[in-house]
Amino acid sequence: MPLCISEIIRSICSSLCFNSDSHPPRLTYFPLLQLPLVAMEHVLSMMSPFELINVSLASSRSKRAVKSISRTKKKFSVSFSNYWSSVSFHRHQMIWSYAIHINKDDAYLYKVIHQNEEDREMVIKVSDEPLKDVMKWYDYAREVLNCKIDSVTLKFNHPSSENRRLIDWIAAQNKTMEYMDLSSADEESNDDVKYLLERIHVTGIFNLELKKYNDDFRMEIPGNPEWLYVSKSQFIDYEQLLRLKSPAILLWESILTNEEINRFLKSWMSCETHLQLEAIVINAVDPISMNEIMDLPHEKTNDPKIAKAFNGKHFHVQVKNEMFTMKRCDGKKKATVTIENKWKGWSLFLIVH
């Protein structure tokens, strides 16, 4: 009867670690390192990252075998969270999460949160220094699996020195993230956010939340993430808005005035800025604001296809108010705006089509 993959893994580790002077364990041996190269690679390619790491620890020869297969096969994508002190490996629909917590209560909470996810396998441990230990564990995993972190969730509620050690550790592996969820707890940690953005850029989704900052605080957002979400965007003034290059931009609690939003729309119409824009949301407007904001060439529309587009790729809005369409001067694009009272109050929604 053929062995299942978990039995194979146990057999491999036992056979690799077996000392002839000791009594062999009661397992069916699976001679992995004696297989032809193609067969050995096939067995290794079926293993999870946890299984590969376990095999690599059995001997120097098995470690070389795992490193060799990891260089040639499709790599795992990796996400890291300092909030949960966890590393997760992703491939297809499966997730393998390794988490270390400071006490059993936190470990149990993490397990409860994810326990109903059938496509997730978890290893959860407890340590006095969870962040330090999970970083050390991942350093070894990265060596044998030939992978790098491409997604991070970071909460800067630790001392600045600890935040910056973590930033340097991530940047040494990868200076470009596909996803970043970043939040700071106070004015001091905002400097750590600046420190990070000077070293790491985001190409995909970037969620940014600065909970507290001074009135004169300013911070550039480099690069052009596909999706930029800023939950407290009072630090983004009109001039910085013009410098944002993301195709999709969401600015909550904005300080932009009606006149500045009007100027922004006119700059888009005249092809001066935001040629790659696909959608934008600006919070803190109201129905009366639209008279000043739409003081520009436009036409009203009730096209159901356009209304449906507001409930699509970038946001989910059921259009209940008037829609206004404007043309770009090169004739290649149109944009339609409407306002809705959704999530954090009245907001202007714009889609380019």
Features:
single chain, alpha/beta, Trna Endonuclease, Chain: A, domain 1, 35% helix, elongated, F-box_Sdz-33, F-box domain-containing protein
Explain how this protein is built:
Residues 29-76 form the F-box domain. This is F-box domain-containing protein. Among the domains are: 1-73, no CATH class; 75-147, 3-Layer(aba) Sandwich (Trna Endonuclease, Chain: A, domain 1), CATH 3.40.1350. Helix content is 35%, strand content 25%. It has helices at 5-17, 37-45, 49-56, 60-72, 104-114, 130-145, 160-173, 187-197, 238-243, 258-269, 289-293, 304-309; strands spanning 77-81, 86-91, 94-101, 120-126, 149-156, 176-184, 201-210, 227-230, 248-251, 279-283, 299-301, 323-327, 334-341, 346-352. Strand 1 and strand 2 (86-91) form a beta hairpin. The longest helix is centred in the middle third of the chain and has 16 residues, at 130-145. It is elongated. Residues 1-5 and 14-22 have low confidence and may be disordered.
